[in-house]
Amino acid sequence: MRLGDSLISLLAGACLSLAAQAQTVTAPAGQFKGTGEGTLHVFRGIAYAQPPLGQLRWKPPQPLPRSTQVRDATQFGPACIQPVATTANLYSPATPLPMSEDCLTLNIWAPAQARGAPVFVWIHGGSLWTGSGRESLYDGTRLAEHGILVVTINYRLGALGYLAHPQLSAESPQGVSGNYGLLDQIEALKWMKSNIAAFGGDPSNVTIAGESAGGLSVLYLMTSPPARGLFAKAVAESSYMISMPSLKEARHGMPSGEGSGTALATALHASGIADLRMMDAQKLNNAAALAGFGPWGIVDGQILTEQMVSAFDHGNQARVPLLAGFNSGEARSLRVLVAPVPASAADYEKAIRDRYADLADEFLHLYPSSQMQDSVLATTRDALYGWTAQRVVMRQAALGVPAYLYLFDHGYPAMDQADLHGFHASELPYVFGTFDRTPPLWPKIPADAQERALSDAMIDYWSSFARSAQPRSAHAQSWTPYGSDGTYLHFAQTPELAQHLMPGMYDLNEAVVCRRMAQGDLAWNWNAGLAAPKLPAKSAQCK
Predict the structure, then answer these.
(1) I need a surface site. Which of 5, 72, 81, 192 has the fewest CB within 10 A?
(2) Does the global pTM surpass 0.70?
(3) Pairing, β 149-153 against β 201-211
(4) Which residues contact 468 (CB under 8 A, 6 or more apart)?
(5) Which fold has domain 31-81+102-320?
(6) What is the pLDDT of residue 51?
(7) Separation between Cα atoms, residue 264 and residue 272, nearest integer Å
(8) Are 426 and 420 in contact (CB under 8 A)?
(9) Cβ–Cβ under 8 Å, residues 326 and 380
(10) Could you tell me if 184 and 96 are in contact, meaning their C-beta atoms sit under 8 angstroms apart?
(11) Between helices 345-356 and 372-381, what is the axis angle to 10°?
(12) How many Cβ atoms sit within 10 Å of the Cβ of residue 319?
C-alpha cells in the first residue's frame, strides 16, 4: 500500500470512529447509544420515567435513576396500552403497534452538529385513546434536517392514563387523581429540561406541538401550573377547547371524574382500585372503551385548575408565542361526530330554530338548509376546531405575544375523489414531509412538484417558528401575526395571506359557549347544530 493510500485509510478510520462516538451521548440521565442516519443522529425508545406497572398503575410518573451502563437507543419502544381496533380506518397503521404498560419513552432526531438547537416536542393525537410517538407519519427526519431537534413522546392513554377514583384521590398527597397521561407529558418535558442539551438541544427553547388530542394536550399544558416554564412556544393543530369534568362535582353537564371512575369500576365488576390493578392492562382498556369511559383532563385544582375557556379568558395560560389552526374538512373523516342529515330542508330549519332560539337566524345564515350536507359537516368542524383555533390565537395576541392562525384547505385528486378535502390530520404529511409514510388507507399524495413545494413551505414555517417564534419560509408568502385585521394563512394550493376567517363563525360559537357556561349544566363539544341542546337565554355575562 502506498503512503498516500495508507494516510487516506487512517483518516477514514478516524472519521468513522468519531462518527461512532458522536452517536453515543452522555447525559445526566446516563449514556445512550443511537444511530447515525444521513446528517442526523437518531435516538429511539429512551425511557424518561419509571414504568407505571402493577401497584404503580394510576400513580404519577417517577424519575428514573441514572443508569451506569450504556443504554441502547436504536429501537422504538412499545406504544402505550390502547384498545385493539376491530376494523381498519383512515388512520390505522400498516401493522398493529406493539404495546406495553412499560411505554414511557421518547425519540430524538438531532442534527449531527447541533449545539443549542431549538427543540420541537411532538405530542401524538388519537382522542387520548390511541397513538404513539413511533408512528411513521411523525418521523422527524425532514424537520430535523432544518436545524431543529425533533422529539416524539408516548404517554398513558385511555383509562390507564385518565382514570380518577375516590380511592386514588385518597392515596394522593394532593388528594387528586386522574390526569396521569398529562403528568407523563410534563415528566417528559422535565426530562428534556435536564438532558436535551447533551443531544444538542436548547432546554430554554422548547416548542410543544400536537394535533387533535395532541393539540388538546398542548392547551392542557398551556393551562397547567406544573408545566409552566418547561416550554417557550406552542403549536396547536386541530385542537379543541371542550368542557372538562371536575374531580369531585358534576358540572357543565358532565359527571365528576371520580364519579366516572366509580361507574367504570362497577361496570367492570371491580370492588375498587385493588381489583382494577389486578386486571390485565389490555383487557382493562378494551373494556373501558366498550363501557363508554371518556379519557379527559380533569379540573382537580392542582394539575388543571380551571376550565380551559376560563383560563384563557383570565390570562392564566402560559404567555408563549402560539401557532394554531384547523382544517377545512375536519369532519369529513370524523362522521361519527356528525348528526344525520334530516329528510328535508324544512325539518332542518325547524330543528335549528328549536335549538338555537334567538341565534337561529345567525346559525342558518352560516349553515344554510340549501346545503345541508356541507352545513352539518361545517357545524361540527367549527364548534370543535374552528372556534378553538381562532379563540386561542386571539387570547394570545391580547397578551401581547406573537400568535399565528392558519386554515389548511388543501386537496389533491385522491383526497377530493374520496370526498375528504382538507380532512382531519391531512396536514401532517406536509408538516413532517412524510408523503411515503402515510397509513395504508390514507389517500395517496402525488409526489409532484406542487405537493412537495407546499410541504417544503410548511416545514419551513414550523421549523422557523420553533427557532424564533416567527414562521418564515424562503419558498412562500411571509406569515404575519394575527391582529386587528384578523390575518391568517390560508393553505390551499399555495400558502396565501387572508383576513377575517369565516366571518360570523367565531362570534356564533362564542355566544353559544358563553351561555352554556353561564347556565352551568351544559357541555360544549360536538353537541352542536342538530345535536345541540336548547340554547339558554342570554345572560348578563354574555355579550
Answers:
(1) 5
(2) yes
(3) unpaired
(4) none
(5) Rossmann fold (3.40.50)
(6) 84
(7) 10
(8) yes
(9) no
(10) no
(11) 30
(12) 13
Instruction: Supply the angle between the helices 180-195 and 213-222 in degrees, to the nearest 10.
Output: 70
d(CA 81, CA 466): 31
Give me the amino acid identity at 31.
Q
Distance CA 92, CA 248 (A): 36
**Maximum C-alpha span of the chain:** 92
* Domain coordinates in residue numbering, the chain: 31-81+102-320
Find residue 201's DSSP bridge partners: 117
The CB density around residue 291, as the number of other CB atoms within 10 Å, is 13
Task: Determine the Cα–Cα distance for residues 167 and 271; give it in Å rounded to an integer.
Answer: 11
Residue 529 zone, left/alpha/beta (φ > 0; ψ -120 to 50; rest):
left
Q: What is the pLDDT of residues 43-84, one digit of tens each?
A: 999 999 998 888 889 999 999 999 889 999 999 999 999 998
Q: How many CB atoms lie within 10 A of CB 534?
A: 10
- The pLDDT confidence band at residue 539, using thresholds 50, 70 and 90, is confident
- Residue 168 corresponds to which cell in the numbers above? 386514588
Q: Which pLDDT tens digit goes with each residue over 187-236?
A: 999 999 999 999 999 999 999 999 999 999 999 999 999 999 999 999 99
Catalytic residue set = 212, 330, 424
